[in-house]
């Protein structure tokens, strides 16, 4: 299930003790964002604009490979040394990546932050990528992750959906092709690393940190250098399409989406948040539609089989997005359930009323407030907003200030967009796109 994470940065200031967010610059020119919630534990994330959309054509999967290199020997520390010193400081270190960013996260006691960040700087700026470590450590990591990926129907559908929907950078998979796991060379890793892990492509975010101390620590610990090379631009355009993947799963999963909104279009994001409630899927507060009946995706698919599951998809990238729904369930009734879901979504988009908007806005604001209690989700959303350069009104204000014409305009654009359909499992039970008009 995919919901827009960027509206959720309503965040830690809501009924909390947090000091207001402070965005500022370093002497190197890089930007940082600091929020002090007076916690004894500090949380820091370094966002590097080096996700899969920026991979050059001759190095598919290199961003996944870089992610798997986290914690390898650097010029100053061995694998054992990094692990030992992190554990000694009571710190946790993890790395994740998506199409936009590779993100380095560390949690530690507040008074150990400077000590721990020194090892993060080593990882980011002085790696050695020793050949035997790439073979003995990275390749097994990659193969293990790819093995888990092949068993995850949702991930397979998500990757296929992006490949079918886009041309350009966003069509690149977050996961390396299996045949690439043992073909990427040390020189390839250094090439991508040196061109993308540079000052202009990094953002620093801290929670539970003093802004002045955080800035001073990064200035001192991170020896950053600007680079004239800006890497691959990752240009992308939405085209729509279809992918039907035969796979050995007990049920079939269908993703149906159209072009959504980028995370920089805050008003459209707020409108999509409201529309997702009107459409209705698992995990959402039901919104009464029409004269008292609760017409939601969940209720519609359950009328075909109690085993069907559905959710709203709302994925937002820096320059575009995807919006629609996912349905998964028994093959025998999936075709009719998918058609009914498409019909329901189109009815909602064609007929948003003032009363619908009022109810959906209330539900959206309630969920934003509830989710602001999840500190990790808030931190991740806050970091991505900062790394993408988003500023402006709070999510609650954006939802509150929505007018009916704003929502109707976004709904109209969704209806005009060419659809993308992906089926993973037994696609013979899934209608084709031209059967869903």
TrEMBL record:
GO terms for cellular component: mitochondrion. Residues 184-363 form the Peptidase M16 C-terminal domain. Residues 36-177 form the Peptidase M16 N-terminal domain. It holds the Pfam family Peptidase_M16. InterPro entries: Metalloenz_LuxS/M16, MPP/UQCRC_Complex, Pept_M16_N, Peptidase_M16_C. GO terms for molecular function: metal ion binding. This is Cytochrome b-c1 complex subunit 2, mitochondrial. It comes from Aceria tosichella (wheat curl mite).
């Amino acid at each position: 299930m995919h919901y827009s994470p960027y509206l959720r940065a309503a965040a830690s200031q809501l009924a909390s003790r947090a000091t207001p967010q402070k965005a500022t610059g370093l002497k190197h020119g890089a930007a940082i964002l600091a929020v002090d919630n007076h916690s004894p534990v500090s949380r820091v994330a370094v966002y590097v604009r080096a996700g899969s959309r920026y991979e050059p054509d001759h190095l598919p999967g290199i961003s996944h490979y870089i992610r798997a290199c986290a914690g390898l020997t650097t010029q100053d520390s061995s694998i054992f040394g990094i692990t030992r010193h992190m554990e000694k400081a009571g710190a946790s270190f993890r790395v994740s990546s998506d199409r936009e960013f590779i993100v380095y996260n560390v949690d530690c006691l507040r008074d150990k932050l400077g000590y721990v960040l020194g090892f993060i700087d080593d990882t980011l700026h002085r790696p050695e990528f020793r050949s035997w470590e790439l073979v003995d450590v990275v390749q097994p990591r990659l193969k293990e992750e790819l093995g888990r990926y092949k068993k995850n129907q949702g991930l397979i559908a998500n990757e296929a959906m992006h490949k079918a929907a886009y041309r350009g950078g966003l069509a690149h998979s977050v996961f390396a092709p299996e045949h690439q796991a043992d073909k990427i060379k040390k020189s390839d890793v250094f090439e991508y690393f040196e061109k993308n892990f540079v000052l202009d492509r990094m953002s620093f975010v801290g929670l539970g940190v003093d802004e002045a101390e955080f800035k001073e620590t990064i200035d001192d610990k991170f020896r950053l250098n600007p680079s004239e090379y800006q890497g691959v631009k990752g240009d992308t355009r939405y085209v729509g399409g279809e992918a039907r993947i035969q796979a050995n799963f007990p049920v079939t999963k269908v993703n149906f989406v159209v072009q959504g909104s980028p995370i920089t279009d805050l008003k459209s994001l707020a409108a999509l948040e409201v529309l997702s409630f009107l459409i209705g899927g698992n995990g959402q507060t039901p919104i009464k539609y029409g004269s008292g009946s609760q017409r939601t995706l969940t209720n519609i698919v359950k009328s075909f089989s109690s085993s069907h599951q559905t959710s709203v998809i709302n994925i937002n990238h820096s320059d575009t997005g995807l919006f629609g729904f996912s349905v998964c369930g028994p093959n025998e009734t999936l075709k009719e359930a998918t058609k009914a879901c498409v019909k329901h979504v189109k009815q909602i988009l064609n007929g948003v009323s003032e009363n619908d908007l009022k109810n959906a806005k209330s539900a959206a604001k309630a969920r934003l407030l509830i989710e602001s209690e999840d500190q990790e989700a808030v931190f991740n959303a806050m970091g991505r907003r900062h790394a993408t350069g988003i500023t402006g009104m709070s999510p609650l204000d954006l939802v509150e200030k929505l007018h009916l014409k704003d929502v109707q305009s976004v709904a109209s654009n969704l209806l005009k967009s060419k659809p993308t359909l992906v089926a993973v499992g037994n696609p013979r039970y899934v209608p084709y796109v031209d059967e869903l008009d």
